[in-house]
Amino acid sequence: MRRRTFLTASAASAAALLLSACGADDSTSGEGDQAAPSRIAGDENAPATIVFWSWAENIQKVVDLWNRKNPTQQVKLSGQAASDELIAKFLTAVKAGNAPDVLQAEYQSLPTLITNNALQDLTSAIAPIKSSFPQGTWDLTSFGGATYAVPQDVGPMMLFYRADIFEKMGLKVPTTWEEFGALAETVRSKDPKRYLTTFSPGDAGWLAGFAQQAGANWWANENGSWKVAVNDPATQKMLGFWGQLVNSGAILGDPMYTPQWNSQMNDGTIIAWPSAVWGAGVLAGVAPSSKGKWRMAPLPQWSAGEQVTGFWGGSSTAISATSKQKPQAAKFARWISSDPEALKVLIEIGLYPSALAGQSMLDVAPDFMSEQADYYKSAAEIAKTARGFSSWGPNTNVTYGAFENLMPKAVRGKSDFAAVAAQVQQQSVADLKKQGYQVVGG
Question: Strands across the sheet with 439-440, in order?
């Protein structure tokens, strides 16, 4: 469930490739720079053996369901490591001509794959199911007017809090970030042993979700050139807010997913956690003795009355540009993310589905959050308000890596968090130029 970083496109192959010229047509090997046709020719019901690379735990159960229902179109699952390792292996396989037909790809990795001509344009093939997803979620797989994958699972952000401690201390759940900041100070004044939350400096995916909610767009492709805006006003505002709280001592500045964090979440030292819909599962593992004491609410807003959140995590189903069975692969990609039976199994194996129909199936709260009967109903409403960046960049891993290198230093030095964004901006732009991308502004 944790944030993952992603491999950038290699300098050798990426320099001449832009989002305006992505994918490979049916007659190419995937190494050219022709744009892929959005309409996939061929019979999607023809017999086939489809190779599927995925890292999701227990995804074989969904594949087994497909294979029972489609005896002449069998899917062979190959379990893979996620993140950088998967993307590197897939790009190598595309170049060698032995890539799988279908790939489970995290949203942030899509631009890297697209600019390497590794994915098929699916715009027409999956258009019939577009209405099955919230627009903000569909946008995560669309670039330059084309769609390259089907959203599979998603992680809309929300706020988890210890309801029992809030009640004991007479605290009100914050609806704005201004209230959140004031509440952090109140907690410290009422009980010096407790903190409202911690700011985790080593998790750029978490920061990206906050930036999305604030209205940031870190990347954009303008007529074949990249515009980078990591240090935009929205991001500076967000980082400045967290910096003030950490530097004043109102909240902690320690990382998540450590033994110390686990203990603090379990014993009530930390009483709130801005996370994502899958957070209930994490809490069940790290804070078992607090079962039934946590509640979930919408993330605080930057302005009263707003309803918007960001994304932290999630993946999609994409098709290799070199697949020889693109119609059948597209049929499987549509099915696994939108068919009611498939969605039911995805839920059973622990994924929060991107499709609206799948979200509506979740009517029983997670066992750890059993006291909040409307957990998934509330989560579905929050998911509808999620927005991502207008585009992810082809060197997301460089941007993430810069944040994760510089932000801990800012925490330790109690320096200006917002200034980190300017440094990350410089490193991101320099890397794009080094790779040969055209960059506007800077």
Answer: 219-222, 225-228, 439-440
Q: Which residues contact 355 (CB under 8 A, 6 or more apart)?
A: 132, 133, 151, 337, 338, 343
Residues 202, 78 share a domain = no
C-alpha pair distances (Å), 144 with each of 40, 316, 442: 19, 18, 21
Residues 49 and 93 in one domain: yes
Rounded distance, CA 422 to CA 153, Å? 32
Q: Is the dihedral of CA 354, 358, 363, 365 positive or negative?
A: negative
Q: What is the reported pLDDT for 330?
A: 97
Question: Rounded to the nearest 5 degrees, what angle is found at the Cα of 382, between the Cα atoms of 336 and 199?
Answer: 105
Alpha carbon 35 to chain centroid, angstroms: 26
Alpha-carbon span 158 to 347, nearest angstrom: 19
Distance in angstroms (rounded) separating the CA atoms of residues 401 and 5: 8
Q: What share of the chain is helix, strand, coil (3-state, %, to 5)?
A: 45, 15, 35
CATH code of the domain covering residue 186: 3.40.190.10
Check residues 84 and 38 and name the one with the higher pLDDT. 84
Taking residues 276-288, what's their average pLDDT? Answer: 94
Give the residue numbers spanning the domain of 303: 156-310+391-440
How far is 318 from 101, CA to CA, in rounded Å?
9
Is residue 143 within 8 Å of 21, Cβ to Cβ? no
Structure tokens at 367: 């066992």
